[in-house]
Each structure stands twice: as C-alpha cells, then as structure tokens.
Amino acid sequence: MVSHRGRGPTIRDVARRAGVSAATVSRVLNDSPLVVEPTRARVRAAVDELGYRMNATARTLSLGRATAVGVVVPFFTTHSVIERLRGVVARLSGYGQRGYDLLLFDVEAPAQRADAMRDLADRNRVAGLLIVSLPIFDAEIDALQRDELPAVLLDVRHPRLPRVVVDNVRGGELAAEHLLAKGHSRIGFVGDHPTNAYGFTSSEDRRRGFGAALERAGNRLDPALQRFGLADREEAEVLTRSLLGRSSPPTAIFAASDLQAIGVLKGCEAMGARVPEDVAVIGFDDVDLAEIVGLTTIRQPLRESGEQAADLLIAAIEDGVDDPVEEVQQLTVVERRTT
C-alpha cells in the first residue's frame, strides 16, 4: 500500500507503480499517441489502483501561468525545423480547452540568442520554454528554475533539463556503414564548420561517427576529402565542386544534412559527375525534399521529435514533471537512388 502522508497520490507514485517514467504517465493522462497500448494499459491500471486524479487545469490556473509556449529556434524556415515545429504545434493544439498557443522566437544571428532567452523567459508571457538546437548555459537554467519556468530541449543536450535528441555519432556511423557496403573506399564529407558562433555540434558529431566507422573498417576519412562551410545548399555546391575537381575525387560523399546534400547533388551536376555511377551521395534528416529528389539519407523522426518534446513540456507545465529525462530517437538508413 502506498502511503501518501496526508496527500493524494502523485504522478510519480503512479509512475513507480507502473514501472515507467513520470513523463510517460503524463503522456497517457493527456492521451498522447506516442505511448504503446501495453504501457498505456499498465499506467491506467496504476491510476485506478492508487485512485490518482489529475487536476491539471486547476494547477495551471493556480500557478497563474500564461497559455502560450515559447519556442526558441534557429532558422525556422529550414526544412528540418519546419518538420519539428509541425509536431510541436500538433501536440499543443491537441489539448482541447487546455490548448496552448505558440510564441516563436527565430534566431537568425548569434546576437539574437540572448535576446530570445531573456524576452521569452517571462512567466507573464509563456507557460514554458522549448529550446531547439541551441545550447543552453548553466546560468540560464538557474534563472529559469528561480522563476519556476519549465523548459525542455529538442535536438540539444543538457543534463539538468528534459530533452529529446538523436545519437548523431551513431548516425554518422550508419552513413559510413552504408557507403562501405556499397564498395566505396574514397569517401568525402561536406558539413558545417566544427566551431561556429551558435555552438551547433550535430555536424561535427556526425563527422566523428562517420570517421570512426571508416577506421574500424580499415579505411580512413582523408582530411583532403573533407570540406566545411555554412549549412546551406549554395555553399555545399561550391564545396562539392572543389572536391570533384581533385585529381582523385571521392566516389561517395556524406553530407551532414539533406539541405547540404542537395547542394552536393547540384555540384555533381555542375561537374558532369553522374549520381550514383560516378559519385554516391547520402544526407541526413529525411526532410520531404529528400524523397522528392530520391536522396539516400539517415532518417531522424523530425515531426515525432517535436511531438515528444511538446509532451515533455506539457508534463512539466501541468503536472510538475521536470525530471531531466533523455529520450533518444531511433535513426535508420533510407536508401534511394543516390547510392
């Protein structure tokens, strides 16, 4: 028998009884589609056994919180960000009368980052913060916790906050394994500058995993076959033309994102290189455009990641579930015509 010491059972009591995380219990209570039926049934049984009753609306009203969620995101017009935001919006709008609006702060320059954190970290404006891809600092987390403002990370890690991420190193390994299985040994890489003003690390993590997998196979990622630039299509095209202009060009190229992979394809076209006969190309993300152009890529579930992050944030806002859980999404190779 659970002793509640004068209080009713909490969401954490239900989680312990069901053998799941508190965030999973919150998802079940809020009818999230992201929980499989056996787990959902186990949580429902624990709720019934303990007599737990959710009073999230009253809790939210008592806290005096706003009914908007602040989202801090870099370059919100990029395909991968748009897919993530679709997932966020789908979940936020799915709470019936408790629906949440979305207050978006687009960070297009490094100097805007601090402004975004300061302007959105206001309890009178937002009920919680979702921070996408941008690293967050300890002092900023201290300020959020002093203000009792819930925050969740998406596509970026910090051990003190709940987060939804992918294993980018493993994604790079998958790309290498795919190209090696196709018989390639002279393989190039096109990605972001390892050091950048935003603190992004995904491209470098993917490159590290890619290089490690090549080395394990007795190959290596030749520094002469690596090119770094801004994360856009036009620069990726220029970098690819530089690679293919070498006396011994690569027979395959791994681009750190689908957007850059599109630039790689344009560069191949400009240099008269056939894909995949002369150069195989693999990207990362699996945005809508990848399927349209037939791009082989490493798929990360972008829209689902937005849904999961939104669920974590609602759990923190409405149920006080702010455990710093890390949800790691599955990566898969989607093979199309470019390899």
Q: Short description, anyone?
A:
This protein has 13 helices and twelve strands. By secondary structure, the chain is of the alpha/beta class.
Q: What is the succession of H and E elements?
A: HHHHEHEHEHEEHEHEHEHEHEHEE
CATH H-level superfamily of the largest domain: Response regulator
Measured as a percent range, the helix fraction is 40-55%
User: Rg, please?
Assistant: 22 Å
What portion of residues belong to β-strands? Answer: 15-25%
Q: Any low-confidence stretches, pLDDT <50, length ≥5?
A: 1-6, 56-63
CATH architectural designation of the largest domain: 3-Layer(aba) Sandwich
What's the CATH C level of the largest domain?
Alpha Beta
Q: How does the major sheet shape up? A: 6 strands, parallel
Total number of beta strands:
12
Structure description:
The protein has 339 residues and is of the alpha/beta class. It folds into 3 domains: 11-50, no CATH class; 64-166 and 302-329, Response regulator (Rossmann fold, 3-Layer(aba) Sandwich); 168-299, Response regulator (Rossmann fold, 3-Layer(aba) Sandwich), CATH 3.40.50.2300. Helices cover 44% and strands 17% of the residues. The protein is built from 13 helices and 12 strands. It has helices spanning 11-18, 22-29, 37-50, 56-63, 79-92, 112-120, 138-146, 168-181, 202-216, 233-244, 258-270, 288-293, 302-319, and strands at residues 68-74, 101-107, 128-132, 151-154, 163-166, 187-192, 226-229, 252-255, 280-285, 296-299, 326-329, 332-334. Strands 2-1-3-4-5-11 form a 6-stranded parallel sheet, sandwiched between helices. Helix 5 (79-92) links the parallel strand 1 and strand 2. Helix 1 crosses helix 3 (37-50). It is elongated and about 75 Å long. It starts with 10 loop residues before the first helix and ends in a 5-residue tail after the last strand. The model is unreliable at 1-6 and 56-63 (pLDDT under 50). This is LacI family transcriptional regulator. Keywords: DNA-binding, Transcription, Transcription regulation. Pfam families: LacI, Peripla_BP_3. InterPro entries: HTH_LacI, LacI/GalR-like_sensor, Lambda_DNA-bd_dom_sf, Peripla_BP_I. Residues 9-63 form the HTH lacI-type domain.
